[in-house]
Amino acid sequence: MATTGNDLYTDDPEYIATPLVSPVPPPQLTPPRLRNRHDNGRAPVDRAFPPSPAVYRTDKTVAHEQSVQWMVCDASLEDDEWLQHLRILVEEVGETDYSRFCEKTIVENLVAAKEKLKDLAPQDMYRAKSRANPYQCLGKSIFAYPTAVKMANMDALFQFTDINARTGTGELRFADLCSGPGGFTEYLLWRANARGIPIRGWGMTSRGRQDSALDRMHPDSCVKQLFEPFYGDGTGDLRKNENIRGFHELVEYATNNEGLDLVMADSGEIDIAGNQEYHIRQLVLCQVLAALLVLRKHGDFVMQIFDVFTPFTVDILYILYRCFEKVTIVKPLASPPDTAERYIVCRNLRVPHPPRIIEHLFAVNDRMNDLRAHQAKDALEVTGLMDRDAVNGDEKFIDRVRSVNMRLCIRQTEALQELRKYADDPSLSSFDQIEVRNRCLREWKLPIPDPPPPERQWQERHSHQDRRSTERFSPYGRRDGDRRNFGRSSYNGRSGRGMDGRYPHEDRATYRDGGHHRDHR
């Protein structure tokens, strides 16, 4: 090898081709992730580099306002011929004819969408629901119960708390039926007190797990001073005629026979599995009966229902259609879109205490109780409250029922299909749920929660999908590894690693020495 002077590598091609500057970048002087002892077990936050903005869905417009389509009965008060068709129809329950009050193909699509979700594990279903529903962040707002937000949604639509339009006594008087633990009452009292509206309420719900939990309600509701629970024979069971009569006597005495301005009814006290419409039918009957007993003239009624596919439910709706000036079926935005939940809202009772209807409903309830007591011996059920031809002959009413059923079934089917997409692909972008929440709360005149600090706000808004994918499932909202809301310890002592992948001693910046843990703060 030829050399020049004392340099042995002057003519070496490899030496000559060696770059003078290393392609390896120098180390960062500022560490990308900084932690401190006050992070409380949260995932490390990148303080050196701001996170990239999250990508939200923009393919659909998420509404915060709703419109209402009323069903108005044109018959006069003197036209009571329809009362001649009141009947108690008792039959064996057969297969539901979905083409009668809806479109069979639409219902079949709904059933097929439900079937596609049956193979999902509970935790996968929970995570998909939390991302597919644009209104997921509505939650409970400032209240103890989510049903309070639903009532705020409906109050914005129907102005139940507008005392100038709704009452003639200067005081808002209401009843809350079967809606334990009491979200409807919580909202109504809170709203009335915030506006300085005189208000009083009475309610009946079953004893036990679904009893009214007055101690948990918002303190501004003043529920213990303004609301009186009633339990009748001690059970609070509205399906017993003696309890309905006892509640009527209580309200009549308390209001000097003037009646109530508003009756609200829910089905929260029943554990519903399977056919929801079938399981709550007697409760719906008794809620309507109690409302007609205690409402004053021009009073309003709102009641939770589910599907409207059977003649029994349609007959109930037809009776309300004839008793009130106008009726509508509405699904609040605060109600999960993948469920069949909806509400019947009735405005302006035409005749208070209609005697023939009340007598008929009492008789129907007696018959249902008798059949329930002998259910093991026969399969007979009360399937209707009126002659079928009388209800089917009102074509205007039937057309409206079919139209509402088809519209709500299609919306539910679309929501279930969205749910399946999110379950199959956890990486799908969600809606900006906090922005949707804020728009809705402003529309419903509810307080908007203060935003969290920027780092926590980014973590909650933009990376909740990633956190949920690694957290242990809990249907009650608790997430293992979350110190912010639930206790001191983030770890299960028997499970080793925490939900963020670290061992407990790593969270305390400890190190291992001879098998012992030493704090090195």
UniProtKB/TrEMBL annotation:
> What are the protein's UniProt keywords?
Methyltransferase, mRNA capping, mRNA processing, Nucleus, S-adenosyl-L-methionine, Transferase
CC terms in the record's Gene Ontology section: cytoplasm; nucleus
Q: Which cell locations does it reside in?
A: Nucleus
Q: Where is this region: Disordered?
A: 1-51, 446-521
Bias (Basic and acidic residues)? 457-485, 497-521
**Catalytic activities:** a 5'-end (N(7)-methyl 5'-triphosphoguanosine)-ribonucleoside in mRNA + S-adenosyl-L-methionine = a 5'-end (N(7)-methyl 5'-triphosphoguanosine)-(2'-O-methyl-ribonucleoside) in mRNA + S-adenosyl-L-homocysteine + H(+)
Does Endoplasmic reticulum show up as a keyword for this record? no
Q: What GO biological process terms are annotated to this protein in UniProt? A: 7-methylguanosine mRNA capping; methylation; mRNA modification
Cite the RrmJ-type SAM-dependent 2'-O-MTase domain residue spans from the record. Answer: 142-350
Single annotated GO MF: methyltransferase cap1 activity
**Sorted alphabetically, which InterPro entries does this protein's record hold?**
mRNA_Cap_2O-Ribose_MeTrfase, RNA_MeTrfase_FtsJ_dom, RrmJ-type_MeTrfase, SAM-dependent_MTases_sf
EC? 2.1.1.57
Q: What's this chain's function?
A: S-adenosyl-L-methionine-dependent methyltransferase that mediates RNA cap1 2'-O-ribose methylation to the 5'-cap structure of RNAs. Methylates the ribose of the first nucleotide of a m(7)GpppG-capped mRNA to produce m(7)GpppNmp (cap1).
Protein name as it appears in the record:
Cap-specific mRNA (nucleoside-2'-O-)-methyltransferase 1
Q: Which organism is it from?
A: Spizellomyces punctatus (strain DAOM BR117)
